Amino acid sequence: MTSDDKSTRHTARMVRKKAVIDAAIEQANQEKGLLLVLTGNGKGKSSSAFGMMARALGYGMKVGVAQFIKGRSDTGEEAFFRGQANVEWHVLGEGFTWNTQDRERDTKTAQAGWAIAQRMLRDPSIQLVILDELTYTIKYGYLDLTQILADIAARPAMQHVVVTGRGAPVALTELADTVSEIMDIKHAWRAGIKAQPGIDL
Ligand code: ATP
Ligand code: MG
């Protein structure tokens, strides 16, 4: 095949591709507040959520963050986002469950945290709500999944919600519009490298 032939075939293929993509764009014409679930054992769930947060803030949207489980308030994302206009930031956990070792206290903490999340899920001025590490509160039975699903389903029509955490329950992924499972292929931590500021926290 001459290079002219190759070029002609490439152009024809791109014309067909453009027609398919244009038709798909035409079809995707609805707007609604989305529920996104970022789950799986690989790294990148919370950092993806905070990437969307940066996008939303770039549009002048108001964003509310609720961090469950983690008690730490020294992460790079918190240092960066907390000082920004249009950000409401809540650290609701008291640390990892294997550190606290107190189920009753963890349950109370999670429930008090959910009351704050509920408030954000009822506030139409908050256009994006990030429920970071929420799945663990369900897994350990600190919060009731039915209640969580009901509150998320009843949120304002145009409000987006991002839930992160490993082992997302099926009922949550069923309710969601977009679900990504991040696969763990390799993590530096297993090679003995400690969590690196700017990358891991
Ligand atoms: P990130 O906040 O970096 O996007 P994540 O939200 O996907 O990570 P979490 O389970 O919340 O993952 O864990 C947060 C911390 O644990 C980060 O420091 C991250 O680098 C680390 N981590 C995430 N996945 C793994 C893994 N598979 N093995 C070891 N450490 C991990
Ligand atoms: Mg995370």
Automatic annotation (TrEMBL):
The UniProt entry lists the main location of this chain as: cytoplasm
Query: What biological processes does GO assign it?
Result: cobalamin biosynthetic process; porphyrin-containing compound biosynthetic process
User: GO CC annotations?
Assistant: cytoplasm
- Kindly state which reaction or reactions the protein catalyses: 2 cob(II)alamin + reduced [electron-transfer flavoprotein] + 2 ATP = 2 adenosylcob(III)alamin + 2 triphosphate + oxidized [electron-transfer flavoprotein] + 3 H(+); 2 cob(II)yrinate a,c diamide + reduced [electron-transfer flavoprotein] + 2 ATP = 2 adenosylcob(III)yrinate a,c-diamide + 2 triphosphate + oxidized [electron-transfer flavoprotein] + 3 H(+)
The segment(s) forming the Cob(I)alamin adenosyltransferase N-terminal domain are 2-25
What's one Pfam family the UniProt record gives for this protein? Answer: CobA_CobO_BtuR
Pathway membership, UniProt = Cofactor biosynthesis; adenosylcobalamin biosynthesis; adenosylcobalamin from cob(II)yrinate a,c-diamide: step 2/7
Cite the EC number.
2.5.1.17
Which keywords annotate this record? ATP-binding, Cobalamin biosynthesis, Cytoplasm, Nucleotide-binding, Porphyrin biosynthesis, Transferase
UniProt entry tagged with the keyword ATP-binding:
yes
Question: Where is the protein localized?
Answer: Cytoplasm
A GO term, aspect molecular function: ATP binding
Which domain of life does the protein's organism represent? Bacteria
**Record bears the keyword Acetylation:** no
Task: Give the UniProt family note.
Answer: Belongs to the Cob(I)alamin adenosyltransferase family.
Job of this protein: Required for both de novo synthesis of the corrin ring for the assimilation of exogenous corrinoids. Participates in the adenosylation of a variety of incomplete and complete corrinoids.
- Please give the name of this protein: Corrinoid adenosyltransferase
Report the source organism: Methylotenera oryzisoli
